[in-house]
Design the sequence.
């Protein structure tokens, strides 16, 4: 269907209507997909050599969390380098980043017709609009001038959204602040509770208030601490991390405040503490609820007077440090129980941030899966890594007591097992590969070569051959690491070593 002036006018009215950016972008791609006969359409923002999905239509829900590095996706790199729209030949040798990511198309995994519209703000690349279809001739009747007009409308909408976001940041953070560093890991998810958290982060980042981050284990408290620091005026200085739970009490004071040579047995030289290292920057005290009471009093003094004293030194050093603390404990209850100082609690909790559990944001599970799938795809050197819809459904039915961290581990473990079961670079995660809810993961051995190894053997010989082939596959997937292989197979490491020796693998 050709692009008509009426359709372009409707798109222009849609993207200038009084909707949120996200709703406006969703309406844009839905309209484009419906009227141009696409099997999939996507609006992407270009950020630090990555294309980040802002809205998609016709694509799997995990695509929303995949940040596509152009160095890993040659078709997207071609769009990024082009100064104009790109029509890819139906027989293009460049893999499409959406191959296998269009639902309900199990027999047609490879996209054939593809157009990429790079979006510019003046001469700066800010994004792309992609159109994909399985029919190789689907876009043949789309005129170049009309497609350019569609790209111009999309670019204008994206440009305005980015400008408004920037103005909002300046308003909340102040003119002297810096925007978040692109090296910061992304906070994936658009659930209302996550949008509220982002607004709270922006609100406090431009101040020097102490921040207390509260949340269950695995919710991403360190990620929130990084976001606060990197959106603050201190972003150009150090963010120093200290895990209070991992500190033996005997060395905790030295870690925090430093010591001078000869201050105690083993102090063979001067050493700066975390406060000195974080001067003019931010000190992130993780698991603050585990800090011994004696050190709590000394930490309170630093917060009150802004000076530290090294162990064995009579002099005080002035420091300018912002404190961000985090805990999975209920510090109010810890105060009542006498395990945490009330005065320190009130000093730290000037601006509390609650990080939601995964149970509070179920709509983010798909994008989070996509984020971890893309990470695993790159780390395992795969061309394609997908997850079956029934496997994704199984993930949605789990209550995730370990939150996002648990999901990350499940996806990465399943990706490793899926690679072991695959004969090529296109890998699919099956439901049985997911170790959740106390169940072990398993990998079906699908290679014809593995089956051929057991033909013509008696049961014991066939069993040994199968075990040897299977262990070798999983060992290869874990890059020769026997401990990781034992975990993937659900075996005791000692038993695995003995079995591997008996099978002649060691």
Sequence:
């Amino acid at each position: 269907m050709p692009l008509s002036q009426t359709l372009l006018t409707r798109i222009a009215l849609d993207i200038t209507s009084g909707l949120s950016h996200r709703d406006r972008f969703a309406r844009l791609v839905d309209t484009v997909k419906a009227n141009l006969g696409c099997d999939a359409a996507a609006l992407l923002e270009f950020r630090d050599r990555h294309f980040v999905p802002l809205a998609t239509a016709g694509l799997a829900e995990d695509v929303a969390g995949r940040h596509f590095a152009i160095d890993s996706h040659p078709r997207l790199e071609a769009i990024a380098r082009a100064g104009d729209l790109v029509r890819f030949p139906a027989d293009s040798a460049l893999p499409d980043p959406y191959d296998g990511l269009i639902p309900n198309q199990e027999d047609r995994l490879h996209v054939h017709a593809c157009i990429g519209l790079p979006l510019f703000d003046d001469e700066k690349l800010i994004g792309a609009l992609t159109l994909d279809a399985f029919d190789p001739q689907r876009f043949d009747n789309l005129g170049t001038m009309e497609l350019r007009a569609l790209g111009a409308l999309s670019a204008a909408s994206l440009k305005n959204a980015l400008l408004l976001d920037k103005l909002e940041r300046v308003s909340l953070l102040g003119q002297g602040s810096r925007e978040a560093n692109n090296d910061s890991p992304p906070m994936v998810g658009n659930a209302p509770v996550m949008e509220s958290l982002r607004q709270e982060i922006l609100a406090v980042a431009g101040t020097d208030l102490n921040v207390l981050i509260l949340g269950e284990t695995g919710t991403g408290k360190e990620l929130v601490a990084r976001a606060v620091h990197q959106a603050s005026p201190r972003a150009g200085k150090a963010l120093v991390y200290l895990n209070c739970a991992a500190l033996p009490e005997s060395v905790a004071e030295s870690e925090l405040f430093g010591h001078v040579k000869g201050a105690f047995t083993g102090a063979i030289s001067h050493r700066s503490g975390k406060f000195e290292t974080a001067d003019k920057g931010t000190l992130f005290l993780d698991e603050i609820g585990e800090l011994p009471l004696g050190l709590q009093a000394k930490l309170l003094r630093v917060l009150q007077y802004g000076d530290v004293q090294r162990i064995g030194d009579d002099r005080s050093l002035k420091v300018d440090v912002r404190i961000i603390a985090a805990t999975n404990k209920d510090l109010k209850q810890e105060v009542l129980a006498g395990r945490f100082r009330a005065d320190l609690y009130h000093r730290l909790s000037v601006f509390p941030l609650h990080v939601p559990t995964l149970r509070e944001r179920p709509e983010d599970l798909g994008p989070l899966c996509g984020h971890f799938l893309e990470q695993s795809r790159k780390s395992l050197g795969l061309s394609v890594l997908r997850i079956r819809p029934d496997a994704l459904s199984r993930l949605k039915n789990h209550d995730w007591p370990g939150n996002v961290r648990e999901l990350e581990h499940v996806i990465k473990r399943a990706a490793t097992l899926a690679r072991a079961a695959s004969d090529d670079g296109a890998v699919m995660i099956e439901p049985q590969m997911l170790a959740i809810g106390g169940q072990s993961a398993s990998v079906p051995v699908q290679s014809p070569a593995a089956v051929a190894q057991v033909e013509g053997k008696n049961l014991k010989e066939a069993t040994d051959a199968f075990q040897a082939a299977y262990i070798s596959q999983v060992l290869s997937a874990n890059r020769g690491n026997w401990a990781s292989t034992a975990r993937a197979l659900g075996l005791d490491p000692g038993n695995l070593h003995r079995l591997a020796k008996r099978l002649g693998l060691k």
In short: Confidence is low (pLDDT under 50) at residues 175-182, 446-452.
